[in-house]
Design goal:
The complex is a heterodimer of chains A (112) and B (116). In chain A, the strands form two sheets. In chain A, strands 2, 4, 5, 6, 9, 10 and 11 form a seven-stranded mixed β-sheet that branches. Chain A is mostly beta strands. In chain B, the strands form three sheets. In chain B, strands 2, 5, 6, 10, 11 and 12 form a six-stranded mixed β-sheet that branches. Chain B has a four-stranded antiparallel β-sheet with strand order 3-9-8-7, with no helix packed on it. A two-stranded antiparallel ribbon of chain B has the order 1-4. Chain B is globular and about 45 Å long.
Chain lengths: 112, 116
């Protein structure tokens, strides 16, 4: 049973399109995150949610909109995709802000 | 500001050698948490260890050991008798309790190559 699962695993799309990535965790955690990993492997926080409430929005363009319908889900919608959005996007969850995060397998987004 | 520095970009060792991955952090929080993650070639991020700022005891788990020293703001990771399966990118991360809360600040990672 996968703890943090995100779909799709791969996403290839054209510039200007809108796409969504879904994330679900079955760990009963209160906090969820989106991270972006660029081509140099650098991991950067995008958003964090605690109990469905947005806590951190780390200067992400407003083309990116997270949505947390409940504590177990945190989806990421991206409008008007640009070449620079190509990256691996990781969803993660943690019990609280003091404990370790568990990551999904990542979604490799390629914008052409 | 919070920051994690992993100065070693890439390390290559021959199997069975010991290797230490360095991690230096900066934070103004008095309570904080440090982590190590492994990212194998398959791409997932695997949690290895968490250490809180009040616990400077070193930890050993099999071939892995961690050395936390507040005096030098370092949290180094040693793999003893390395194996090819240890080849991966290793990330050190920091989470604060006031200024850097609800996020993990990652270092840039160290790519470890273990050669047979």
């Amino acid at each position: 049973d996968t703890a943090v699962s995100q779909t799709p695993k791969y996403l290839v799309t054209q510039m200007g399109n809108d796409k969504s990535i879904k994330c679900e965790q079955n760990l009963g955690h209160d906090t969820m995150y989106w991270y972006k990993q660029d081509s140099k492997k650098f991991l950067k926080i995008m958003f964090s949610y605690n109990n469905k409430e947005l806590i951190i929005n780390e200067t992400v363009p407003n083309r990116f909109s997270p949505k947390s319908p409940d504590k177990a889900h945190l989806n990421l919608h991206i409008n008007s995709l640009e070449l620079g959005d190509s990256a691996v996007y990781f969803c993660a969850s943690s019990q609280d802000k003091y404990t370790e995060a568990f990551f999904g397998q990542g979604t490799r987004l390629t914008v052409v | 500001a919070q920051k994690v520095t992993q100065a070693q970009t890439e390390i290559s060792v021959v199997e069975k050698e010991d290797v230490t991955l360095d991690c230096v952090y900066e934070t103004r929080d008095t309570t904080y948490y440090l982590f190590w993650y492994k990212q194998p070639p398959s791409g997932e991020l695997v949690f290895l260890i968490r250490r809180n700022s009040f616990d400077e005891q070193n930890e050993i788990s099999g071939r892995y050991s961690w050395n936390f020293q507040k005096s030098t703001s370092s949290f180094n990771f040693t793999i003893t008798a390395s194996q090819v399966v240890d080849s991966a990118v290793y990330f050190c991360a920091l989470s604060g309790t006031t200024s850097g809360t609800y996020k993990y600040i990652f270092g840039t990672g160290t790519r470890l190559k273990v050669l047979a």
